[in-house]
Structure formats: structure tokens, C-alpha cells
Write a structure and sequence with these properties.
By secondary structure, the protein is an all-alpha fold. Helices cover about 75% and strands about 0% of the residues.
């Protein structure tokens, strides 16, 4: 990579890393894993930066690299995954109850999102959290637009079912989230 290409890459990372980190977090469900995932994708992109055909759209390439790195990471680490328990180690104070409800609602949504298959999760993240159109999602994931629509339909049905089973805290969060366009 020459000096101009390095400058372009650094400018791209400075401008888009926050959004890309948010996407990586939503795909992994964990900030640290999201940071690792983003670093992996950016390192891969840096190696190929001079060979990118369309320098005006490097974000699509990086998002595709993030998605594929997540799939690869899942395949390699799936045998040693931690499991979430239903019981919390600490009980919240009465004063924290208002905040606790919001946290529980968010956890219910994130747990339901984590239970989705990788492609469905990627479609939901890209569409509802990143506000990407079907054509862009299809390009990032390397699938047809019809696949994007069918995966979205299946994912939303799964999310609705999971949130209905989670109980009243998820019901409140799903009605609040549907106002933001997260769960229709």
C-alpha cells in the first residue's frame, strides 16, 4: 500500500469505524467481540485496499468482511460457547427498578437476536439497525434480493415468537421497538 492509499484507508476508518463497530456489536452481541470482529475485517480490508475495484464504496466490502468473519468465527468457536443463565447473581435495588426494566427489555431483544441463525441476524441488523436497502444487503451478503426478503420474513417471525415467549418485559420492549421499526 502506498502513502496515498494508506491515507485513504485511515480516513475511511476514522469516518466509518463507529458505524461499523455498531454493526459488529449487533452481530456478536458483545462489545469486545464486536471490536475484535471489526479489527479482523479492517485488517483483511487493509491487505486488499489497493486492489478494491470501487474505491467509492469500500464500506460494502468491509461490511461483507465483517459478516464473513463472524460466520468463520462462529464455526471455529461454536463448540466452546458460553451459555446464558436465567438467574442473575445480584438483585437490583428498588431504586434501580426503572433502569432494570429497560435493561431486561434490551436483554430480551438481544437474546432473541442472538438466537437467530447467522444470515437472518445479519439481515435484521443491516435492515433495521443500519437502515440498509435490500439491494445493499444483498450485495453485502452476496445473496439475491429475494433471499434477503425471505430471510427478513423468517427472522421477524422468529423474533415475534421469541419475544412473546419471553413474557411481559419483552412484550413492552417489542411494542416500544416496533415504534422504532425494529420489530414489525
Amino acid at each position: 500500500m502506498n502513502a496515498d492509499e494508506e491515507r485513504e484507508f485511515r480516513e475511511f476508518v476514522a469516518a466509518r469505524s463507529r458505524s461499523l463497530l455498531h454493526t459488529a456489536y449487533l452481530l456478536t452481541g458483545d462489545w469486545e467481540q464486536g471490536r475484535d470482529l471489526l479489527q479482523t475485517a479492517l485488517a483483511s480490508t487493509a491487505r486488499r485496499w489497493s486492489k478494491l475495484r470501487d474505491r467509492q464504496q469500500p464500506e460494502t466490502y468491509v461490511r461483507r468482511a465483517i459478516y464473513h468473519a463472524q460466520v468463520d468465527r462462529f464455526r471455529l468457536l461454536s463448540w466452546g460457547r458460553e451459555t446464558v443463565t436465567d438467574t442473575l447473581p445480584d438483585q437490583p435495588s428498588a431504586q434501580a427498578a426503572d433502569w432494570a426494566d429497560a435493561v431486561v427489555q434490551r436483554q430480551d431483544i438481544m437474546a432473541a437476536l442472538r438466537r437467530l441463525p447467522k444470515r437472518q441476524r445479519a439481515v435484521i441488523v443491516l435492515r433495521y439497525f443500519e437502515d440498509q436497502p435490500d439491494t445493499e444487503i444483498a450485495a453485502i451478503l452476496g445473496v439475491a434480493q429475494g433471499t434477503v426478503r425471505s430471510q427478513t420474513h423468517k427472522a421477524l417471525a422468529s423474533l415475534r415468537t421469541a419475544l412473546a415467549e419471553a413474557g411481559p418485559s419483552a412484550t413492552a420492549s417489542s411494542s416500544a421497538a416496533s415504534g422504532r421499526g425494529v420489530i414489525a
